[in-house]
Amino acid sequence: MAHSSDSSSVWSSAFVHDSLADGVDVLADRLALGLASAVGVIALLFVLIAAYIGFQGGDVEVIPASVLYASSGASLLVVFAIVWVRLEPGERRAAFPVSRPSPVELGWTLAFVPLGVGGFVAGLEAAALAGFGLEPFAYDVTDPATLAAVVFGAVLLAPVVEEALYRGLLLGTLLGRGWSPVAAGLATIALFAALHYPHLGVAGVLAIAGWSIFPTILRLRFDSIVGPWLLHLLNNVYAYVLFVAFVS
């Protein structure tokens, strides 16, 4: 059953790429894989962290950043590899649309960097009104092991794999099942934000939801995950490396 309305149709005609729904019908039966991959990244991360705690004899008060981000990167890599193998070539092309970004797309992407930060801050402010806060990231980026793990997990792998899984595969499966671009985009934003709860709490969920609006718009407008990946990459370089280096 299609999820549509007059208002979403008007929005779609103005902001959605003409070929967005082309070929996504092959993904209609891949919703379970899309959901499993999204949840699987978090589940595998928990397993790896639990294994680390077990190897340490259970006496661990704080997980080192090097362990956390290395485990996160490993989880992303393993889950994406499984998804890649499970998909047929035609399904991969539909799930992971890639094209050379035009100057217009690059312009939108760069403009969305500060807007994304604004969306993140707006989410934090909304959470603060409800009494929830977010602890800032605190680790030593001058430590080689920590920096290597952060670059591996948060800068290199998280942007490309998360965009491929959420705004690629998951959004594509919803479109393939007849969802409108607006409904599919909102559902993707909600799930992407919700799965940050274990690491960032309620405030982080609302902040991520505010930020996620912008890569989702890029995905719908230009029918490619390249713009969202670039925006995600620039955001994570700022949030996980530059910002931490200046405030810690």
Automatic annotation (TrEMBL):
It holds the Pfam family Rce1-like. One of its GO terms (biological process) is CAAX-box protein maturation. One of its GO terms (molecular function) is endopeptidase activity. Keywords: Hydrolase, Membrane, Metalloprotease, Protease, Transmembrane, Transmembrane helix. The chain crosses the membrane at residues 31-55, 67-87, 108-133, 145-166, 178-197, 203-222, 229-247. The keyword Repeat does not apply. Residues 146-237 form the CAAX prenyl protease 2/Lysostaphin resistance protein A-like domain. The keyword Membrane applies. InterPro entries: Rce1/LyrA-like_dom. This is CPBP family intramembrane metalloprotease. It comes from Natrarchaeobius chitinivorans.
